[in-house]
Design a protein that fits this description.
Strand content: 35-45%
Helix content: 10-25%
Number of strands: 9
Oligomer: single chain
Structural class: alpha+beta
Radius of gyration: 30 Å
Largest sheet: 5 strands, antiparallel
Length: 187
Amino acid sequence: MDKKEIYEHLAKIYLDASSKKKKRIKPLSKFARNFSIAAVAIVLVLGGALFSSYQRNKPFNSDLSLVLLTESAKINFNFDPAKKEIFNLGLNKLNVGRFKGLAFNVRKTNFNDNISLRVEFTNIFNEKSEVYIKNIPHKWQEYKINLSEFGNINDWSEMTNLCFVVEEWNAREKNGVVYIDNVRLLK
């Protein structure tokens, strides 16, 4: 056998073997196809009705949110010279009026410290309003605050800052660390 015959023999074996492996899939009958489509439609309709009923009973739709901070922020406070430490998120004139709440996770590092955290919004007209979160835990905890609790702000259309503040008079210890993570606005 010469090279040409060997190549032709190998090609015949390869092509015959590959055509034998392919199996044809039989198409579904009309009844089976219609039944499958009807079953999927029923599941979607029932699932949608249950989901919308569930969503109406929730205070915040946590699935729809605007994430403002994805990484952990660290407020490292030392009240020897300073009286407060601030972590500021610039909102760049963000329209917050379409949102209903603010959510974030927070924890402290010193187990024995008793810390309160001030959460403050400021708009373009320098209207400020704050809410205090008392007894920050040692382990991560999620907080959700309804924006209506920030009562001194009349115009939410152009917000400039969201601040997290640790003040000397709201902490037992003179130094410590507070972490803030997953800051988001909820619809």
